[in-house]
Write a structure and sequence with these properties.
- The complex is a heterodimer.
- Helices cover 52% and strands 11% of the residues of chain A.
- Chain A is of the alpha/beta class.
- Chain A has three domains: 126 residues, Rossmann fold, CATH 3.40.50; 68 residues; 180 residues, Rossmann fold (3-Layer(aba) Sandwich).
- In chain A, helix 2 packs across helix 3, helix 6 runs antiparallel to helix 7 and helix 12 packs parallel to helix 13.
- Chain A starts with a strand and ends in a 9-residue tail after the last helix.
- Chain B is an alpha/beta fold.
- Chain B has two domains: 173 residues, 3-Layer(aba) Sandwich (Rossmann fold); 156 residues, Rossmann fold (3-Layer(aba) Sandwich).
- Chain B is 51% helix and 13% strand.
- Chain B has 15 helices and eight strands.
- Chain B has a four-stranded parallel β-sheet with strand order 2-1-3-4.
- In chain B, helix 14 links the parallel strand 7 and strand 8.
- In chain B, helix 2 crosses helix 3, helix 7 runs parallel beside helix 9 and helix 13 packs parallel to helix 14.
Chain lengths: 387, 357
């Protein structure tokens, strides 16, 4: 049985390893590209959000590569994402593709269904229960390690002296992690990978802006859909922090102690615990970013995403109350890199000016305020590399 | 005594009789906003983000219309209407869930908004609990609340029955609130009786060359109540169909039981109350009570409808039923709508003739 799954950021490394470990043949979907989008857009409903279209395209691609089964996640609403698999299955049938979509629903809603499906895969791969559980635990460690590395890379990037060093270091570390076979090796690879990233030559004298990125999980996690925004910001010399990682719900965020805090923070603006997707989180995290002195917040959402539209309607008020600029990107298949880059640059310029004004720099010699871009170009001259 | 304003949008078309009766029984005056106009829509557009759907924009416009005219604006937070769905987690569209917060964030100097959180999947007594809480806040005593609640529930039940008899909401609302339920019900029954005869026999359309005059074309119009019953945002589609001599069926003309009987056909129930009603109603008209064609009215960039519409399209295609989706937004013009409707009806007529020959 050839199994495939939706691709989201770098997590495919862990998923591929897991499936191969339990004896399944695994097909990794190619990184979403123009062909994926073309396919997806052709067969998806017009107003489905971009994750739906990208997944549709990916599924058709992996079906062509010979996948028999696609494993994905379900959900119990009110975000449409929980209904994707039903629609994908129906559309694949319509097109005449034989691939089956199997979704894991929330185990809290139906534990037996969850276990039954897990067992299905275990039997198909022929792994023992003990081995299966072990593999799961190791894969989860991998997911966490991948996220750790990614987070560190975003911290390092704005300080890097040679452009591209961090990305290369990240690839190297992920490569190390990919070779790890059990939890001990994963831990070693993690340490090694983090060390490699820390060793990237950095200029610690820079003073990067701090920006938080919030929004819908898929467009946050899949860089090819958000035009590599987090890296782009890093290259502009901005320290961009993202609110959601795949391992988020077991991880204590830098400043929030889990979901509860975020909801608490959102309450004055959105007094409803669950509006689906990450709508409430978007509000709550903006509040938290503002409280922790971030310079700005960027919201990423797929076009026509319902929870994010609700959040978007409320964010101007949060922005006004807490004095934090918020820039929203509604992403769809038309979004181009140049457009995103231009808007980002303008936003970053604005943040820079605000910061200077706040710090009260009224130096007469400072006729033009330094833009992040200018700063970045000037940086290598004042090297103080940190080894 | 206070004046309570109720915006004529979104859930208004289904629950207004209840709200009006309840508040009036408690001794308050109820004012609804005026029917949607260009002006109301424009105000709504100004207040909302451009990505919001037109029903939400219209709702903001209606709230603006009531602003300064009333003491309170009643904006219930409808979370769920029943326990339903695969995990019992059916809710309303997320925009309903965040509606009072969206209003608070986007409209300045708003009259006090009276909010009530209706989460009816919690249990049968939840509805009374919420409304008695609301009554208490308005200063009514328990007995009065009980009486008002009973009266309002009765009126609401009558209203829903009139809808199921095939009467359009504006008419049904008038009759029910004027207390002439019986007369209206009788008229509705007569109408339904006429339809029974006029209905297309299952064995084939218009047998023995009956002229289309006494065999009117039957069409299912499905969509969310606030899209199909607001004549402004769908530029009078329903009345235009009526004038064209078409018998219109909507999902609200079916009882809960009839709708639920279709639920098994879905692999997984939809998450949204209104969407479930639309899908189940559409399936009912496809399989149980056949119609000649189906029109789905949907709002531009409506989240749930991106799924519902494709679903209906596939199901209609599998059954060979003519299906048309009409998308409405703030730029929908009468001419465009008219043209599409006429083309669709012509196509149905052509189909019918082809079958007869």
């Amino acid at each position: 049985m050839k199994v495939s799954f939706p691709r989201m950021g770098y997590s495919h490394l862990a998923f591929r390893w897991l499936m191969e470990e339990v004896g399944l043949e695994c097909i990794v979907p190619p990184e979403p590209n123009n062909e994926t989008l073309d396919l997806g857009v052709r067969y998806s409903p017009e107003f489905a959000c971009i994750p739906f279209k990208v997944l549709m395209g990916s599924y058709l691609q992996v079906a062509e590569m010979g996948a028999d089964v696609i494993v994905t996640s379900g959900g119990c609403g009110p975000c449409r994402a929980g209904y994707y698999w039903v629609m994908h299955q129906k559309l694949l049938e319509e097109i005449g593709v034989k691939t089956k979509v199997i979704a894991f629903e929330d185990p809290m809603c139906g534990i037996w269904d969850f276990i039954r499906k897990l067992n299905l895969f275990r039997n198909a791969g022929g792994a023992s229960i003990r081995h299966f559980v072990q593999a799961f635990k190791t894969a989860w460690e991998k997911v966490k390690a991948i996220d750790d590395m990614e987070i560190l890379s975003y911290e390092v990037r704005p300080y890097e002296i040679t452009k591209g060093d961090t990305s290369r270091a990240l690839q190297l570390s992920l490569g190390l992690l990919d070779k790890a076979k059990d939890r001990k090796e994963v831990e070693e690879a993690r340490q090694e990978g983090l060390k490699i990233l820390k060793e990237v030559p950095q200029d610690i004298n820079r003073d990067p802006l701090k920006v938080g990125i919030i929004g819908e999980i898929y467009v946050l996690l899949e860089p090819s859909i958000n035009q590599y925004m987090q890296q782009m910001l890093g290259d502009m010399g901005v320290r961009a922090e993202r609110s959601i990682y795949l391992s988020s719900y077991t991880r204590n965020n830098t400043f929030s102690q889990g979901e509860q805090d975020v909801r608490q923070a959102a309450r004055p603006y959105l007094n409803e615990t669950c509006i689906g997707g990450h709508g409430v989180n978007s509000i709550g995290e903006t509040v938290l970013y503002a409280r922790h002195g971030y310079d700005g917040v960027i919201q990423l959402a797929p076009f026509s995403c319902i929870p994010e539209i609700v959040a978007r309607s409320i964010l101007p008020r949060v922005s006004r109350d807490l004095d934090i600029p918020v820039l929203t990107f509604f992403l769809d298949e038309q979004t181009s890199r140049a457009g995103v880059e231009t808007r980002l640059e303008a936003f970053i310029d604005l943040l820079e000016m605000r910061r200077e004004k706040k710090r009260g720099i009224k130096s007469a010699s400072l006729i033009t305020l330094p833009t992040p871009r200018a700063k970045f170009d000037a940086a290598p001259k004042l090297v103080a590399a940190d080894k | 005594m206070a004046t309570i304003g109720i915006p004529r949008a979104l859930a208004y078309y289904i629950y207004f009789p209840f709200w009006k009766t309840y508040f009036e029984e408690l001794g308050h005056e109820v004012i609804e906003s005026s029917p949607t106009t260009r002006d109301i829509l424009d105000k709504g557009i100004k207040d909302t983000v451009s990505d919001a759907c037109i029903p939400i924009k219209v709702f903001h416009g209606h709230v603006e219309d009531l602003k300064n005219k009333v003491d309170y604006i009643f904006v219930p937070r409808l979370v769920s209407m029943r326990k339903f769905g695969d995990f019992g987690t059916e809710t309303m569209c997320p925009k309903f869930l965040g509606l009072p917060d969206m209003l608070a964030a986007s409209i300045n100097d708003l009259s006090p908004v009276m909010e009530a959180r209706l989460d009816l999947k919690k249990g049968k007594s939840e509805l009374f609990k919420v409304y008695s809480e609301l009554g208490k806040r308005l200063g009514a005593d328990f007995l009065l609340i009980c009486r008002a609640f009973r009266r309002a529930s009765k009126i609401q039940k009558d209203y829903e029955q009139l809808l199921q008899r095939g009467i359009m909401p504006d008419m049904a609302m008038q009759e029910v609130l004027a207390g002439s339920y019986k007369k209206a019900a009788l008229a509705g029954r007569e109408r339904e009786g006429a339809n029974q005869q006029a209905r297309i026999p299952k064995s084939g359309l218009g047998q023995a060359g009956s002229p289309s005059g006494d065999n009117p074309c039957s069409l299912a119009v499905v969509g969310y109540p606030y899209a199909i019953y607001d004549p402004y945002i769908n530029v009078g589609l329903i009345s235009a169909l009526d004038q064209a001599g078409v018998r219109v069926y909507t999902q609200d003309m079916l009882s809960h039981r009839q709708l639920k009987s279709q639920a098994f056909k879905l692999d997984k129930d939809m998450f949204w109350y209104f969407s479930n009603r639309v899908v189940q109603g559409a399936l009912y008209y496809m399989d149980v009570k056949p119609v000649e064609g189906m029109i789905h009215i949907t709002a531009f960039a409506c989240g749930p409808d991106s799924i519902v519409d494709k679903f209906l399209e596939i199901e209609a295609k599998r059954r060979g039923l003519p299906y048309m989706a009409i998308m409405i937004d703030e730029h929908t013009g009468e001419a465009g709508m008219q043209t599409r409707m006429e083309a669709f009806l012509d196509m149905l007529e052509y189909r019918r003739k082809k079958r007869e020959s």
